[in-house]
Amino acid sequence: MNLNALTESPFNLHISFHKLIAHFEEIAATQTGPKADYARSVLKEVEPFPELKNGISNKNQIINNTEIIGHLLESLFPEILTHNEIKAVSIPYQDILFNQTKRFEGILKSAGETFNVAFRDYNEHQFYVMACCIILDAEYGTHLNFSKPLYYDIPTADGVLKHYRILYNADFLELTPTDKAVKLTQEDIDLLMDNFNNIDIWKEKFPVGSWDLRGFGLMSLFDATVESAVSSLKGTLLGREEENINLSEDIEAIFRSIYRIPDLHVGFLSFDPDENTFSLAPFNEQLKSFLLPEEIEAELCSDTLCTHSLTTVVNEKIYFAISDINKYLAENPTSVMARRFKEQGINSVILAPVIKNGKMLGVIELVSGHKGELNSINANQLDVVMPFITDTIDRKFTDLQNQVQAIIQDEYTSIHPSVYWKFKKEVDKYLQFKSHHKQYNLKEVTFTNVYPLYGQVDIKGSSDTRNNSLQTDLKNQLCAAIALTEKLCVSSGIESLDAVSQRLRSYEIELDSAIKADTEQQLQQYLEQQVHPIFKQALVLEIENCPAITKYFEDADKMGDFHLQRRKYETTVAIINERMASMLDKWQVETQSAYPHYYERFKTDGVEHNLYIGEKISPNKPFEMEHVYNLRLWQIQVLCEMELEHHFNREILPYPLEVTSLILAFSSPLSIRFRMDEKRFDVDGTYNARFEIVKKRIDKACIKGTTDRITGIGKLTIVYSNHDEELEYLTYLRFLQSKGMLKEDLEILDVEDLQGISGLKAIRITILNDSSLPSKKCYTYKELLQEIDPEEMKYQKANEPNTPVE
Q1: 254 neighbors 239 (Cβ within 8 angstroms)
Q2: 9 and 128 Cβ atoms separated by less than 8 Å
Q3: Which top-rank group of organisms is this from (predicted)?
Q4: Which of 166, 225, 447, 492 could make an SS bond with 488 (beta carbons 3.0 to 4.6 A apart)?
């Protein structure tokens, strides 16, 4: 029993049974029979103890009268319910308990002699304000409703913390003011309502001992362990954004309360759907796993779980329980999972998948050293807590994903979705080491055995057009400057204008021949330093040519007429690039669904693109060479479509520029590595570098023995190095000819020897411009096989000589 009132309270406490005694007095006076006889016997027993009616204020008075108080309260504490109800006499919101039921006594006894009952999450300030609110509601008719649920947290004998919700019956209590009570106005009540935290104001309006609280209350407890544990779990999970200290221990304590298993432990496995692997929690180093040894960073799901558990947890996404590890291991002697549990002294286990929006995030592991404690039945108790766990883990993964994205953007730049998983894996490893306070340097990302595809749509004659537009603009500016200079020679009297005029005419003659690399820079420098100061001086002097000078400066502005041809050229290139790039991007989105592959493009004077496809880029999907063939066929069709798009829209361009298309065939797989310094992928290794060398040199290559370029307007050119590549691409072209996309004028050309490279050949063919590709999709390699006998293709390849690049 405790009789420890709070040190300060507006109440003078008087434990009294006057209302109950008055009730018995009424029955004895007005009724007959057993009830009246019982009432008279109770009144006779309590008659020698007037303090029971007048009020008890001393702890010893309760201790000395325990038996009599028990008889007096017998009707409220039926003997038949004493082992079922958790009940006692108490003063509401005061730490006073006595006359407990047998069940309540047993609970307190199991908690140990050193345990003292105390309200959870309440302090003396809150209790003082709560007492004041009781007075305000009872005497002034307010509805402040400050009280919140009260709990006792009481441990069992084996250390499991249980949570009991407290309910009060205040029918036997009476509230009266003393001479210290303060009469409150509405202004006082309004002041209190706005000053919860100011205890001085509350004590001013409700001085200590200003009200008598006389009587007793009935306290009833019910076991709310699960509900309270769920609430605590939610608060624990939501309240630990940065702080991870003891988080694992807190969660384990909560789960032990729910399951009432003192040796229950909690683990967590993170699930990676891209690689189908399990790993330790990347967001909290304290969350260990009992399935995955600490020395293993990640492990295939099939290596961690047995077939049955893997199917249940990962595929079906439902709970999996083993109530007896020894029995399970005897029935499944090869189970790595059961053996790992057994080695750690675990004898029963529940595995619970964490699912958010149909996506699996990981697996919660509940384990116990006793068999039967965890089983498929009590696994369903997880239903009440999994929503909170799922939301928290999802939030943690989202935060982690944001960190990963930030590091990738910082260290690797923007990454194509097809290879994002591998960068994520590297950053996850970095963050995992960081969470364990270990050093780890981000590594370069490499993909081996991938097949490259390269293509470009180049703006033909872009350099000449750029020079011509520049030349035209500079000539127009020189003509205007010369005309103004000659007029000023006559009207202004400014010295040295003759020399300036002659110098400008020499620049004009120079522009009539081929423009040099530094011509524009020299001319602009001369105009800025020698000519424009003279024109500005003439404006200050208000010479008669001022309107012409003003017009000159307007035209010399970047948006003026002296930049007209350059703007038209730049606009034309921008339109072509944007149109070609957007088409390529759009078609790329569609073809990624056939088989994920890496894609990048660049805008120069035209649009280039690189594709890399292989098993290493998408390890979770079965890879066949058919995927490579399909992508090569797709590439041809997309370049044809881009050519057609330009053909039908070139008339609306500011400059009537043409484009040419080129594909580089390369049948051997190679390796690519992400260059950290350049923030881009590049081929890896000396041998593979030949591919990059060929890419850089073929766009300006000529047909061997001529000065004609291998590319042509309205034509598609495919450069290759051996006979197998020739046969493969001829097959694609014949198929597309049959679909009315290409003409019959196919040419096979020898490419001139390039620096360090010889033996290249090219196929060139005209794209039909009286039709367009079907809008739904490209033709696929499967459709090609339906029309061309694959056995014939194999025979041709097997019997034709192979001519590699020298």
Answers
A1: no
A2: yes
A3: Bacteria
A4: 492
pLDDT the model gives residue 790: 57
What is the value of pTM for the model shown? 0.51
> For residues 434 and 692, which has the higher predicted lDDT (pLDDT)?
692
Give the closest residue to 90 by CA, choosing from 196, 205, 32, 172: 172
Of 324 and 56, which is predicted with more confidence? 324
Q: How confident is the model over 163-189, as pLDDT tens digits? A: 888 888 888 989 999 999 999 999 999
User: What is d(CA 405, CA 198) in angstroms, rounded to the nearest whole number?
Assistant: 47
The CA-to-CA distance between both ends of the chain, in Å, stands at: 99
Q: Let me know the angle formed at the C-alpha of 138 by 133 and 142, rounded to the nearest 5 degrees.
A: 60
Query: In sequence order, what E strands does 187-232 have?
Result: 211-215, 217-223
Please state, in angstroms and as integers, the Cα–Cα distance from residue 505 to each residue in 17, 482, 508, following that order.
121, 7, 5
As assigned by CATH, the class of the 228-411 domain is alpha beta
Cα–Cα nearest to 216, from 21, 366, 355, 464? 21
pLDDT band at 495 (very low <50, low <70, confident <90, very high): low
Residue located via tokens 């020679």? 489
In angstroms, the CA 616 to CA 681 distance is 15
Q: What is the pLDDT of residues 448-466, one digit of tens each?
A: 888 999 999 998 878 888 8
- CA-nearest of 374, 449, 444 to 670 is 449
C-alpha distance from residue 133 to each of 6, 67, 206 (Å):
16, 35, 10
What residue type is 67 in one-letter code? E
The residue type at 527: L
Q: Are 474 and 523 in contact (CB under 8 A)?
A: yes
Q: Where in the chain is the domain with CATH 3.30.450.40?
A: 228-411
- Calculate the CA dihedral of residues 613, 614, 615, 618 and round it to 10 degrees: -20
Q: At how many degrees (to 10) do helices 564-591 and 625-649 cross?
A: 150
Does the pLDDT of residue 772 top 70, yes or no? no
Strand partners, 367: 265, 349
Residues 6+ apart with CB under 8 A from 290: 265, 267, 340, 341, 344, 346, 349, 365, 367
Q: Largest Cα–Cα distance of the chain, in whole Å?
A: 142
Which residues have a Cβ under 8 Å from the Cβ of 316 and sit 6 or more positions away? none
Residue among 599, 604, 573, 603 nearest 587 (CA): 599
Q: What is the pLDDT of residue 459?
A: 87
* Short-list 271, 274, 275, CA closest to 292: 271
CA distances for 495 relative to 263, 267, 486, 491, 529, angstroms? 103, 92, 12, 11, 16
d(CA 55, CA 50): 8
Q: Nearest-CA neighbor of 360 among 338, 386, 322?
A: 386
Collect all residues with Cβ–Cβ distance below 8 Å to 300 and sequence separation of at least 6.
276, 277, 278
Kindly report which listed range (113-127, 568-582, 588-602) carries the lowest average pLDDT score: 113-127
State how far the Cα of 695 lies from the Cα of 452, in Å rounded to an integer: 11
- As a whole number of angstroms, the distance between CA 568 and CA 208 comes to 89
